[in-house]
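TA notes, week 10

Several of you asked for a full example with nothing omitted. So below is the full record: structure tokens for the whole chain, then the designed sequence directly under it. When grading your own attempts, check the secondary structure regions first.
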């Protein structure tokens, strides 16, 4: 099992919609899930630096570190994808983007090869699709409120997922 540390970003537009990317497992046809922007922390960077690098790589948006909120969620998860097992620690931060920034994003990167979508909290609450982390619809409104950023991060728990590579 490969250990992995990730920095994830809740990219939210002016309409309070969250950008999620779609993932698939090539070894499990039909396995599909939605996940936030972000990814692995490189040895020479900290979590916020990894977050802005991942945003730039996945959306071509250059976001300064100062635009990231403090950590709002943490999560530990184990999963496998394409035959590789992962034991992954995740930190989540909020970053709001303007309408111009959202329109200017190029989300045609490798990470979004299976699609992307801007999700409202209603969309998240009513979807039958797999979204990671689980219970995103219940968790997100608190983060979107000012109060959600003025308290300690919420640890979402330790999970074993069937598929959840990001």
């Amino acid at each position: 099992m490969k250990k992995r540390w990730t920095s994830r970003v809740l990219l939210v537009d002016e309409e309070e919609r969250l950008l999620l990317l779609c993932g698939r497992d090539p070894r499990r046809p039909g396995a599909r899930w939605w996940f936030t922007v972000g990814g692995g922390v490189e040895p020479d960077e900290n979590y916020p630096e990894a977050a802005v690098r991942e945003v730039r790589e996945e959306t071509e948006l250059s976001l300064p570190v100062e635009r990231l909120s403090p950590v709002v969620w943490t999560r530990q998860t184990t999963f496998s994808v394409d035959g590789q097992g992962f034991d992954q620690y995740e930190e989540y931060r909020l970053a709001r983007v303007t309408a111009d920034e959202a329109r200017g994003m190029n989300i045609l990167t490798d990470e979004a090869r299976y699609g992307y979508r801007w999700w409202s909290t209603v969309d998240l609450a009513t979807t039958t699709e797999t979204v990671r982390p689980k219970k995103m619809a219940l968790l997100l409104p608190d983060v979107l409120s000012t109060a959600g950023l003025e308290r300690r991060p919420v640890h979402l728990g330790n999970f074993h997922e069937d598929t959840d590579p990001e």
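Residues 47-59 form the longest helix (13 residues). Use that as a sanity check on your answer.
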